[in-house]
UniProtKB/TrEMBL annotation:
<dbReference type="InterPro" id="IPR047182">
    <property type="entry name" value="MRM1"/>
</dbReference>
<dbReference type="GO" id="GO:0016435">
    <property type="term" value="F:rRNA (guanine) methyltransferase activity"/>
</dbReference>
<dbReference type="InterPro" id="IPR029028">
    <property type="entry name" value="Alpha/beta_knot_MTases"/>
</dbReference>
<dbReference type="InterPro" id="IPR029064">
    <property type="entry name" value="Ribosomal_eL30-like_sf"/>
</dbReference>
<dbReference type="InterPro" id="IPR013123">
    <property type="entry name" value="SpoU_subst-bd"/>
</dbReference>
<dbReference type="Pfam" id="PF08032">
    <property type="entry name" value="SpoU_sub_bind"/>
</dbReference>
<feature type="domain" description="RNA 2-O ribose methyltransferase substrate binding">
    <location>
        <begin position="86"/>
        <end position="167"/>
    </location>
</feature>
<dbReference type="InterPro" id="IPR029026">
    <property type="entry name" value="tRNA_m1G_MTases_N"/>
</dbReference>
<protein>
    <recommendedName>
        <fullName>RNA 2-O ribose methyltransferase substrate binding domain-containing protein</fullName>
    </recommendedName>
</protein>
<dbReference type="GO" id="GO:0005739">
    <property type="term" value="C:mitochondrion"/>
</dbReference>
Length: 257
């Protein structure tokens, strides 16, 4: 069999598998919609096994897609009003300790944490050693309470309560531009990019290529002062800690300025 024929069969198989996958997902979606519109599932215990299975499917679907998003949004809304920043996740906590710029209030750890089963054991050891050296208070807590504290965001059994980082005004950058090093002058401007996950992903790339400065046009939140713009917590988490080592500048009109 020649190469062209083989490639043709491979393409056909891939297309067929994609069609099956699409059909399966659509079928599941229709099942969920069907369940959603049926009132008989209000009391699933009184029905047959098939009804129970469908009821479980709908419950599982709504829990995973609605409640988690609501909890996370509520957490982010509370963060806007908080003076303290609740940093969640191993890489985020590790980066904050490495940068050593913020004032750390306390660290919350899962009371049933099993360090011997952790993949990144060395990072955990570094964190606990640093906390001991700096005499930082450690509070041990049940995992479900930790989940509630950060709105269901993945925290890897460790949360840090610390002060926020704030964005600088772009005018400060212009004043100090002469004193910047000649090497690695990579500056990224993100215009109308507001999603924290996307910003965090960009931060990873900037850090990887040796950049150190990012300019953002950020939407002003309720009760937020003009020159007191917080760097949102999810940016640090989605950037895998790299945003902690970048300089953030706030600018309203990139074209004009």
């Amino acid at each position: 069999m020649n190469t062209k024929c083989l490639n043709k069969y491979i393409i056909i198989i891939l297309l067929f598998s994609l069609i099956i996958k699409r059909y399966t997902s659509l079928n599941r979606y229709h099942n969920v919609c069907k369940i959603k519109n049926q009132s008989c599932f209000l009391n699933p215990c009184t029905h047959k096994n098939n009804d129970k299975r469908n009821s479980y499917l709908y419950t599982h679907y709504t829990r995973n897609n609605s409640s988690i998003n609501i909890r996370r949004n509520n957490f982010l809304d509370k963060q806007n009003d908080n003076i303290s920043d609740y940093i969640y996740g191993l890489n985020s906590v590790y980066a904050v300790l490495k940068k050593n710029e913020r004032t750390i209030e306390e660290v919350i750890v899962n009371k049933n944490i099993k360090l011997n089963r952790k993949i990144h054991k060395q990072n955990y050891e570094y964190i606990f050693d640093e906390l001991k050296k700096r005499n930082v208070s450690i509070q041990y807590m049940e995992k479900y309470k930790m989940n509630e504290l950060v709105g269901g965001f993945p925290h890897n059994d460790i949360i840090m309560k610390t002060h926020y980082r704030y964005m600088n005004n772009y005018k400060d950058f212009i004043k100090n531009i002469k004193h910047l090093p000649n090497k690695n002058n990579i500056f990224i401007c993100l215009h109308d990019v507001y999603d924290n996950m996307n910003i965090g992903n960009v931060c990873r790339s900037i850090f990887f290529f040796g950049g150190h400065t990012i300019f953002l046009k950020k939407k002003k939140k309720v009760n937020e002062k003009k020159n007191n713009v917080k760097i949102d917590t999810p940016i640090l988490h989605s950037s895998v800690g790299s945003s902690e080592f970048l300089n953030f500048y706030h600018i309203n009109n990139m074209v004009k300025n």
